Amino acid sequence: MYETRKQHLLTRAQFAKRVFWHLLFVIGCAVISLAIGILGYHFLGALPWIDALLDASMILSGMGPVDPLKSDAAKVFASLYALYSGLFFIGVIAVLVVPFVHRIMHKIHIDEEGT
Questions:
Q1: Planar angle of CA 85, 57, 91, nearest 5 degrees
Q2: 26-78, pLDDT tens digit by residue?
Q3: Which contacts qualify for 61-70: CB closer than 8 Å, 24 or more apart?
């Protein structure tokens, strides 16, 4: 997926395309994660669709729940979804930062070999 240190550094246009694909991947993962949260809050938490969207969005963004949950199944789901959301945030940051870190590391290695 990424070039080795013996290969040339990507052009700016190629690098922008790589960042775009990483961003698109993250957006797709966020949409799927949000859909899972909405479905869980709607069916397990018995929340209306708009309230399920609000709660899922708030948990996924790290803000916290809005509506109190009454059933044990909904509370277990909310706990697992909150734990998942924390790990999701870390993963998203990693996926978005990787192209930049790789480019910096690649540039450093090219500079070392050139001297």
A1: 30
A2: 999 999 999 999 999 999 999 999 999 999 999 999 998 899 999 999 999 99
A3: 62/86, 62/89, 69/45, 70/45, 70/46
